[in-house]
Specification:
- The chain is built from nine helices and eight strands.
- The protein is of the alpha/beta class.
- The radius of gyration is 16 Å and the shape is globular.
- About 40% of the residues are buried.
């Protein structure tokens, strides 16, 4: 099984790079962040109180998720745009901090890869937790300023300053949670994309494939 793990914080270029890599290498692609976003969407839709942990866990376990590169359907409801919206973005780090939610998503991520004999998987803990034996582990970073600018261009709403504040808030929750926090896997190759174009990053990562 060939798994390429692309981890890193919000706005580091993960999604763009992982999708381009999958296309170039003709591999399947999985956005694991979208899975946590889908759980947050279900929590909102089912009007679950985020502090009612049992119900949040139940929402994750019973989640019917149809996720492709183009679309996301959660419990039969079209959610492609909404999982990227502000309401979900505000809640997702809290949902992703619940250990049982993570355990359920990690289980599904492993099954996904096994069924396809691998693929390009992007997230926060792919190289550290989901697939510690991945063929290649890349940890993408970029300066806070560049990350905020990229997100602003991507979502076309909000100003750079408030996006920078939101990224910082999520980074803090994601790195400080006790259940598999965002961190570099010991053997991950760190690539700082601040001064690189997408093409350059993809070419560089392809050169690193063993
Ligand atoms: O990559 P993203 O911004 O779509 O991720 C959404 C949230 O999900 C982010 O706050 C961190 C969390 N996440 C995670 O904890 N583990 C992953 N493998 C992927 C995302």
């Amino acid at each position: 099984m060939k798994v390429i793990a692309i981890d890193g914080p919000a706005g580091s270029g993960k999604s763009t790079v992982a999708q381009a890599l999958a296309a170039r290498l003709n591999l399947h692609y999985l956005d694991t962040g979208a899975m946590y976003r889908a759980v947050a969407f279900a929590v909102i839709h089912q009007q679950i109180d985020i502090h009612d942990i049992e119900k949040v866990i139940q929402a994750a376990k019973s989640l019917d998720l149809q996720l492709t590169q183009e679309s996301c359907v959660v419990n039969g409801i079209e959610a492609t745009e909404e999982i990227r919206g502000q309401e979900v973005t505000l809640l997702v780090s809290q949902v992703a901090a619940v250990p049982e939610v993570r355990a359920e998503m990690v289980k599904r991520q492993r099954t996904w890869a096994e069924e396809r004999n691998g693929g390009v998987m992007e997230g926060r803990d792919i190289g550290s937790v989901v697939f510690p034996d991945a063929s290649l582990k890349i940890y993408l970073t970029a300066s806070e300023e560049v990350r905020a600018q990229r997100r602003a261009a991507e979502i076309e709403e909000g100003d750079v300053a408030s996006i920078a504040a939101d990224i910082e808030r999520r980074d803090t929750v994601d790195t400080q949670r006790s259940a598999s926090p965002l961190m570099e896997a010991e053997d991950a190759i760190v690539v700082d994309t601040s001064e690189m174009t997408l093409e350059q990053v993809v070419d560089h990562v392809i050169e690193l494939i063993p």
